Amino acid sequence: MQENFRNLDIVLSSEGITGVDAVLMDVGISSNHLADASRGFSIQHDGPLDMRMDTKLAISAYDIVNRYREKDLSDVIKDFGEERFHYRIARRIVEERAKAPIETTGQLKDVVYKAVGGRRGYMRIDPATRTFQAIRIAVNDELGALADGIKKAVSALKPGARICVISFHSLEDRIAKNLFKQFAAQNILRIVTKKPMRPSDQEAASNPRARSARLRVAERCGAE
Description:
Elements lengths: L7 H7 L5 E7 L4 H5 L25 H7 L2 H12 L4 H14 L5 H12 L12 H12 L1 H15 E11 L2 H16 L3 E3 L9 H6 L7 E7 L4
Parallel strand pairs: 1-2
Antiparallel strand pairs: 2-4, 3-4
Helix pairs in contact: 4-5, 4-7, 5-6, 8-9
């Protein structure tokens, strides 16, 4: 069913399900979304600034890039992208959009490149990666949805049932880690993976998009 993680309880109720044996949450962005330029997720493909997981959402990446105040843009890029040049990038975005709206992913990428300047050659990843990630997270409220989804999934678990969360960057992993610890402190969950499981070198080589994956697992207490 096409729904947000945070609406898990509504989905289960609509199906008459009162308890589940397992929950697997894959927090990664869809490869189909990345490949479709019209969705505006990818740095590699020029397309409209959209980035909405659900196209019914009212706010798109265009709105954030062209309407947020400079400080708010800087905070988004810093908090959700963990980008060290957040202030410089936000300032450049504001300067460029004053001339004309920034309408495409290609335009946004070029603006970030200009802001970063000669530092590009020293970066391990594409200089625009963290900015794109940050704006996408803000558009979809991904971190809030993940936290709500985990809480509702834990509530739905039967005794002995397990919840597994696959995340792809530190912000998501931190939410899963901290919530698991909170539930464990309340004797609601037992943490199965003390540290996140990572893909083997062989798996990362055969599936490069798995290289940053982190899997955390916890079990609902109360099983006999």
